[in-house]
Amino acid sequence: MEEDRKPLRADAERNRRRLLDAATSIFCERGLEVGVGEIADRAGVGRGTLFRNFPSKEHLIAAIVVERMRQMIDRGRGLLDAPDAGAALFGLLDESVGLQQADRALFDALDDEWLANEEIRAAHVELISVLDALLVRAQAAGAVRDDVGAVDVLMMVKGACEAMRSFQHVDPGIGARQLDLVRAALSANPGHLPLRGRRPALADLEPAAAASAEVAASA
Amino acid sequence: MEEDRKPLRADAERNRRRLLDAATSIFCERGLEVGVGEIADRAGVGRGTLFRNFPSKEHLIAAIVVERMRQMIDRGRGLLDAPDAGAALFGLLDESVGLQQADRALFDALDDEWLANEEIRAAHVELISVLDALLVRAQAAGAVRDDVGAVDVLMMVKGACEAMRSFQHVDPGIGARQLDLVRAALSANPGHLPLRGRRPALADLEPAAAASAEVAASA
DNA sequence: ACCTGAACACCGTTCAAGT
DNA sequence: ACCTGAACACCGTTCAAGT
């Protein structure tokens, strides 16, 4: 579950970092569709080296996304014993959205298919479990309604990020505003109507059983 | 502002429809990255015909998105004189999310760059103005808080759609649940904290002044 | 072990020839 | 006017040769 990969030769490790850094800055500047050639150039390595470290362009992007998620995870862990549980949870969400605003289109890259990626799913599970810990504390403190789960929260935040991405050029404050709406939805406010469906559980995030079931059904 | 294009020869018009239909079903079945060749084949036309009707693959996708948005716009107009203003607004949102769930990844395709597309921006403006009309009625009826605008609502719905796209395979009910959270955020509930930023206005959706300003700044 | 860049394959797009 | 499909250009990926 931790951040160790099989150890690489010193120069290989350095190249991996250079590629990650070059890709991060280029993607943030100009979006996800810049060519891999340019990335290899900026990193100062050959095209082949990129594909030695990352099986495909998508895997490279995934690695960057995982780094971003790890930042959130670490920050979340640091907030686990903050005095004000509600402020801790919403503070993390604010920071996440802020991070997203600085970059451009990275967090967004998390559709169906990306969850097939082993690393991304692992990071997702970790992130949700940290979020869950923060959420439970906030609920115990009476700052958040009891009928929501960490997956609900993550979904709303991802939604806010996505929405922000579309409209931040027309209103840079839209991210913070959307987050305030998320907060309103999650507040422990009497008079809230009950939610449809059931409270999502951590166990739901297992390997893509849906996909294999679908294949079986079509046979 | 209306749905008339310069009239085409009968066979051309028929080919355009065939391409739109073929693309819609193929994209829904297998996602946005299927080749244009396959679409032309299913439509029963040559590759070149596709590019005669749509300047690029992106424009083809945009045309489909516009059709979807027009469906929402028409449905919204039909709800303008419904007796229960609150139910009308949230009913439309529910239908929109349902539509999204049936398809796969179409509505989602609305990032920054897409708004540069003239047709999409026009449809967006229309959609928001209908949403605004429904929203104002719902607010007058006391069903929705007064400090939100149509853009806020659209952002939250787009967020819910996006979130749903990531997790509907693990929990098909997530869309309805997210919408209930949106409803909770928008409800006229005393005890809601004030929102950061200002209430977005319709006038904000003007041509991409941000982009040209950016270009000017870099000179 | 790892690096390199020329070569390959694939796919969006164009265009000369046809109706 | 519009259609067609072979040809082009571009970009992700591979691999034989090098260190």
In short:
Chain A has helices at 10-30, 36-43, 47-53, 57-78, 85-102, 118-140, 150-167, 174-186, 209-217.
Structure explained in plain terms:
The structure is a homodimer of 219-residue chains. The first copy, chain A, is mainly α and 219 residues long. In chain A, 63% of the residues lie in helices and 0% in strands. The first copy, chain A, is built from nine helices and no strands. Chain A has helices at 10-30, 36-43, 47-53, 57-78, 85-102, 118-140, 150-167, 174-186, 209-217. In chain A, helix 5 (85-102) packs antiparallel against helix 8 (174-186) and helix 6 packs across helix 7. The longest helix of chain A has 23 residues, at 118-140. Chain A is elongated and about 60 Å long. The model of chain A is unreliable at 207-219 (pLDDT under 50). Chains A and B meet through helix 7 and helix 8 of A and helix 7 and helix 8 of B. The structure holds a DNA duplex (19 and 19 nucleotides).
Key descriptive features of the protein:
homodimer, 219 residues, mainly alpha, elongated, DNA-binding
Main beta sheet strand tally, sense and closure of chain A: none
> Order of SSEs of chain A, N→C?
HHHHHHHHH
Low-confidence stretches of chain A: 207-219
Helical residue percent of chain A? 55-70%
Q: Let me know the number of strands of chain A.
A: 0
> What is the average of the pLDDT values of chain A?
84
Q: Rounded to an integer, what's the Rg of chain A over CA atoms? A: 19 Å
Global geometry of chain A? elongated
Proportion of β residues of chain A? under 5%
